[in-house]
Amino acid sequence: MSAPSHHDRAHASTGRPRDPEVDRRIALAAVAVFGEAGWAGFSVESVARQAGVGKASIYLRWETKERLLLDGLAAHVAPVVDADTGSLRGDLTALARQLVELYAGPSRQAALRMMLEAPMIPGLAERCDELRQAQVKAARAMVRRGIRRGDLPDDSSVTLLLDTLCGGVIAHILSTPQHLEDAVQAGLDEFTENLVGFLLGSTRP
Amino acid sequence: MSAPSHHDRAHASTGRPRDPEVDRRIALAAVAVFGEAGWAGFSVESVARQAGVGKASIYLRWETKERLLLDGLAAHVAPVVDADTGSLRGDLTALARQLVELYAGPSRQAALRMMLEAPMIPGLAERCDELRQAQVKAARAMVRRGIRRGDLPDDSSVTLLLDTLCGGVIAHILSTPQHLEDAVQAGLDEFTENLVGFLLGSTRP
């Protein structure tokens, strides 16, 4: 029995209308399997099982499991964006909320694994750099506005602010014992506020 | 062919002097395999291959792969300890250096995976809590001394300071593109100093 080559499979799908709902389900399943088991446990078979589709449905759409994972992450692990709220506190809070969404929301495990496993998966390091660049870009815009307003000294470090903000969110979430997870979810707004207040202290001119 | 039960294996080792060098090599291999492939890729077979020993040597010493992993992590992922250096800056720098050692040293991948995969592995969540408790204990002692000296306000938050210090280290290390890793390793002392200086700003009374 000889399976069709990847090329044939891709060719076989030409012109056939694809069901976007199935695409979406497979991409979500890819993110979930990666989050749960990492790259070592990531296979087309486990994604198919999780999505409730046959392996052929996946091979029709993706040539390799690397592409499958990268597309899933691109669709469901969103980069942060800059928000100009008019104040440094407002800007930092908006950024912190997005980071909380990224690292404590439904894609939590996948987002954390991305950073950890980036060196092992072809193409993933580039995708991580894109996420990071989006964070740096947002943080840089905020710092620039803060300096213009006189809320920040000229020589404020964008990366220190971002590392402590982003890292503070990650450390807070990762350090939660499992039996307290619901309490932590409920307290994330308060945590975000306290974190920003604390970091604003370090940025006083 | 029937393999001897775990009980028989354990029994067979009674009274036989064990080679501590082999124990050490297996424990190191367990940490390396877990760091590389996570729990999904962790097997007695892969640890045996990495350590250059037979699977039987592992089964003689450990009844389950959970115990093998937990013992390896206990031996090679050390909790931080408090250091009273006489100043808040000195204390925080000493703590930050230990965190850098933990998250950027040879056990980097394993230490990060511990936190990420704790909920999946029996006994690992407890081990993570112990590491976390050691961090909280050290940070609490530093903050208490800082308050006594008048370097810190009475209501300073131990957890915010720890989350931003520890998280800042993790974020800095995780956000490094692979091609810059050598430069980051070389700059860790400077980073630690800058991070502590930045956070000291937030703790000004």
TrEMBL record, chains A, B:
Per its record, what are the GO molecular function terms? DNA-binding transcription factor activity; transcription cis-regulatory region binding
| UniProt superkingdom | Bacteria
Q: Where in this protein does the record put region Disordered?
A: 1-20
Q: InterPro entries, from UniProt? A: Homeodomain-like_sf (IPR009057), HTH-type_TetR-like_transc_reg (IPR050109), HTH_TetR (IPR001647), Tet_transcr_reg_TetR-rel_C_sf (IPR036271), TetR_C (IPR011075)
Give every HTH tetR-type domain span.
20-80
- According to the entry, DNA is bound by residues in 43-62
UniProt-listed Pfam families: TetR_C_11 (PF16859), TetR_N (PF00440)
Keywords, comma-separated and alphabetical: DNA-binding, Transcription, Transcription regulation
Report what the protein is called.
AcrR family transcriptional regulator
Record organism: Prauserella isguenensis
